Amino acid sequence: MGSPPPGAGARVAAFAGAPWAAVRPATRAGVSAAAAAPRTCARPVWLSGSAAFGKPFGGGAAALLRSRRARVVPRRGATRGAGPPSLLPLCMASEALVEEEEESSDDEDEEDEDEYEDDDEAGDGEVSSTAAKLDALDAGHPAWLPATAPAWVGDTIMYIRARPWLQLLIAFPLYALHVLYFSTGGWKLPQSAIPNAKGLFSNVGFDTAAGAVVALGTLLIRKVLLRLPRALPPLLSSEHPPWSVSRADKRKIANTTVLLVVAYLASGYGAVLIEQVLFLLVGLGVPLTIATTRAWKVLLGHLIWVFAGVKILRSKLNPFFPRRGSWLSWKWRTNWLAWAVGGYYVSAMFFNGADVLNHWLLPSSLFNEDTVVSKLINPENRDVMAMAVGCVGPCITAPVFEEVLYRGFLLPALACYLPMWAAIPVSSVLFAVHHLNIQGVLPLTVLGFIWAILYTKSNNLAVTIIIHAMWNSRVFLSSFLGLRNFTDFE
């Protein structure tokens, strides 16, 4: 395309700054002023278009008049250099210019009307589509529910879906069943499925069997009830991931990651400082046991890390969190019940298998060492206060923050540079390494792997947050209630 005529910017600015109806009279007034100009002016009037025709035309009008003047036929008997020409050609050119401007404006008005009509039609389409969805919701039949299903089934599903508190009430007994029964019992095989000197592969826990039933049932539902072409969807890919990273945020990923690592290391020094303050309080007579002091140190150090991490994510990648942010997606008024409870059961099955393999590969001496987490779960003298303080971080704040950090930030950040089939395993390994527990790297990697897949398939981080909270709470509840978890090894 060619360059715009001189003064086009002034015309656009004038038309943008005032209504079109207000610009048109100014145009006609400029032409009238030009017609009333004296014939004996020293400078040809068409060379001062801006002054004669007003600001709406500017230099563009003068240039157009120059081009039209070149095509004006001189009057009969006129000679070159005989003085200023008559204003008749100028008026003719001016009228032609006004007509051209009006025609172009009429064309633009027609185009605008067509665009408005198209927008209205599109809007009507969107409204009708939304209305259809609302009608489907009112009808009580979700899209995946067969049309032959009774109406009350769809009504019940939609009623539960719209009430997160009701989903929590339904999830609680299913969770209690898993903690109190499935996790504490199992079958002992007559001999090890795989001969080994450690006595492994000789038991099958009820929780492993329950997870297998949920997994197989899900595949059957997808194939038989939903009639999907594939019972098992591609796990390491996502056509519509639950995140969107802008180019500006992509350039900030490395810097944000470095700041997060520094903040994590600094929180460790903060925990040491907190420990010294707690010892000082004990010296001043505050009744704190060794287990309670340890629990407060871990909790406060963890809260420092959480506060610093959230602050970094919000400041460097603003907006990061919903609703304005697009890095992650969490929804409560949706059907997360099946995803969370089913994902929890299946997670237990895969974790048990990875745990058995972990005991088979690593020396037994590694599993006899006490870690900070094990001391929080089983404090000295069964200190209830220490257990209550120690469970706040693992059961409440850690599930939320770790899911935000690893599934909400790290996974999308890795997906910017790696394909999804590589980003999910890498984020899972980093999730396990972050816990600084060598004997738990393999099982935690499997958990991170399962939870990353659940997030990309459900498009809802609330699912993995709930699973993570239930998982950590099970350990503390089992210790508090004195339950002995049934394992797949002796």
Q: Could you characterize what this model shows?
A:
Helix content is 66%, strand content 1%. Helix 10 packs antiparallel against helix 11, helix 12 packs across helix 18 and helix 15 runs antiparallel to helix 18. It is built from 18 helices and 2 strands. It has 490 residues and is mostly helical. A two-stranded antiparallel sheet has the order 1-2. The chain folds into 2 domains: 94 residues, no CATH class; 321 residues, no CATH class.
The count of domains is 2
| Helical fraction | 55-70%
User: H/E order of the elements?
Assistant: HHHHHHHEEHHHHHHHHHHH
Q: Quick one: biggest sheet?
A: 2 strands, antiparallel
Rg measurement, Å: 37 Å
Uncertain segments of ≥5 residues (pLDDT<50)?
A: 1-90, 111-140
Mean pLDDT: 77
Determine the number of helices (DSSP H or I, runs of at least 4 residues).
18
Side-by-side strand order of the widest sheet: 1-2
Binned strand content: under 5%
* Total strand segments: 2
> What is the CA–CA distance across the termini?
80 Å
Protein name: CAAX prenyl protease 2/Lysostaphin resistance protein A-like domain-containing protein
InterPro entries: Rce1/LyrA-like_dom
GO molecular function, one term: endopeptidase activity
Domain CAAX prenyl protease 2/Lysostaphin resistance protein A-like: 391-473
